[in-house]
Amino acid sequence: MSELRTFGGWRERRGFGVAGLSGTQTGGALLAVMGTLIVALLQPAVLTWIAFPLCAVFALVLVRVRGESLAGLIDKRVRLRVSGGVRRTSWDAPMPGMLEGLRVIEATDAGGRQVGLVWMPGESLTALVPVEPLGTELVADAEVEAWMQGWSDWLAHLGYAAEVERVAVTVASGPTPVLPAQPTSDQLAAAVVTDLSAVARHMRSKTVVSLTLAAPDSSEVTARCAAVLELVGAGGVLARCGMSVLPAMSAEDVSLWVRQAFDPWLPEGPTTPADMRPTAVEERWATYRHDSAVSACYAWQEPPGEVVAPQTLVRLLGPAAYPKRVSVVYTPVPAHIAAREVDRQAEAALFRKEYRRRLGRDETARDQVDLQRARRTAQEQATGAGVVDVCMYVAVSATGDEGIAPVTADLDSRAGESRVRLRRSYGAQAEVFAATLGLGLVPRRRW
User: Would 239 be classed as within a structural domain?
Assistant: First the structure.
């Protein structure tokens, strides 16, 4: 019996920045220092007037609080203050936050079925394809390895599909609403149904693969619709990745998917695009309140540091006693850019090593491993491997503020068992919540 393949080698994309800054921030800081020196040489008297503003700017960019700059924290506070408070929506109001402008349009695929496509004007067009994972418990290791290889090959192929912007796999799970029992004259039957409803665990889980194409121009929407429908039609490739592929979601299915995200205890039923918006939302620093629930949203901060087995994420993705959504977003790097990008990452790692040597600092173990992984990534890409950027967003919900603490504690435990480090998205709860819907949206990076 062959040894089961393991997976690892993830590394954070890092530029030529130093002191925790990005490459752009480092360049800006160097230009500011050089400009200050030139002013000091030419007009020393002016230096006294600009010294304080320059120090303030440097403090905003350089001072870090839990890995985030002061400028970023202030930006979040200002945006939260501006958009804060309870926002109530009407039937004709736009969706809240990043979902503003979202439209669900209908198209017909090659089989004559109606498909609901999510269109963000000026941004993207997304199709949602529900799938049923086959599971790995009763499957031979060789079959699991073949599934993982098929998924890897499919992601690598997306690097040659220029129109594909990103792919997301979203797993939504939680307790199913218990519908009231039908009245009956038989008292014994009514008692049995009541007892079973009280002890039974009603759980529902749904896995959706989202295909997002860039559609910056409204005149390209028709062509993009045809392209995304062609990709959906070729979704049989996913059948070789350990999942059964179901027909793409219709407009009603997409509407119910979004509506249940805002109202997790909503039972299944017909829903139109006009009904998918929430009644009211309120974004706070650490939570996001929407209709019947309060959610806490997280983002992937650090991937597993060691190699892991295919079943590593089972606990994180598995159903819980509360509504939970986990969305893993893959952004394929175009094949003609991937080689240049991985070489640049390796050169940046070498630059940081040389920078530490010039300052007389010892190289840390993390820097050594990062350089090794950067070189290995470049070697694998040179032999035909694809390159994708991966991120993960998680949202967990409770009925009220008092129920959030135990829910987040359970999520932290599950993430730890899955060797994934999650971080609470303070000040960006609405953006991360939208990213967990699998609608082709990701939080915008400002600082």
Answer: yes
